[in-house]
Amino acid sequence: MPIRDDGFIGSSGKSFDLTIDVDVFDLKSVEKAVEKAMYMGDNIDEAFSNAIDEIQARVQIRLQEEIIRYNLEGTGVGASVSVKRKWDGLEIIASAKHAMYVEFGTGIKGAGSPHPNQDFNNTGWAYDINSHGEAGWWYPTTEADDNPVKRYDEKKETWFAWTRGMEARPFMYNTYRYMRLIATKIINKHINKLVNKR
Description:
Layout: H1 27-69, H2 76-80, E1 81-86, E2 89-94, H3 99-104, H4 107-112, E3 137-141, E4 150-153, E5 158-163, E6 165-166, H5 171-197
Antiparallel strand pairs: 1-2, 3-5, 4-5
Helix pairs in contact: 1-5
């Protein structure tokens, strides 16, 4: 008679199979089933850890691809991104103060090419909130800013550059979606490798 434990259900709703078949009337079958269950119990943490390591490595590569895709390499945003391991999984971090503006876009240009995730209820993000429109606005910056329309204000002793905003460059969102796509498959692969070892 088979004893079945369907185990973990991933974010996609698919589960991996931790089936252990045992004939309760056969002592060798029971011993083998107990041995397999103990082996899996002793090694499940390592399988999950290996899965998280693989996911982290793949997500870090995808994040760098997104940075290149949106021409952010060599910028403060590009240099501030990482994929960090947490006790319960991974987090994608962009620590540059202006990373959110790059991710979601700003102004009339951002409104014309908005972020692909339109569920802004959690962020409160809105485009062109000051109604600058095509006239744009001046923002404080540094001489290193590659914006060709900038000037130095001697009274305020600072640089200003003109913009109509910027299109969304959803490097974080695209990386997150990729992580969601691969995570369950990779976890299943590592668990199945563990299950099939015995």
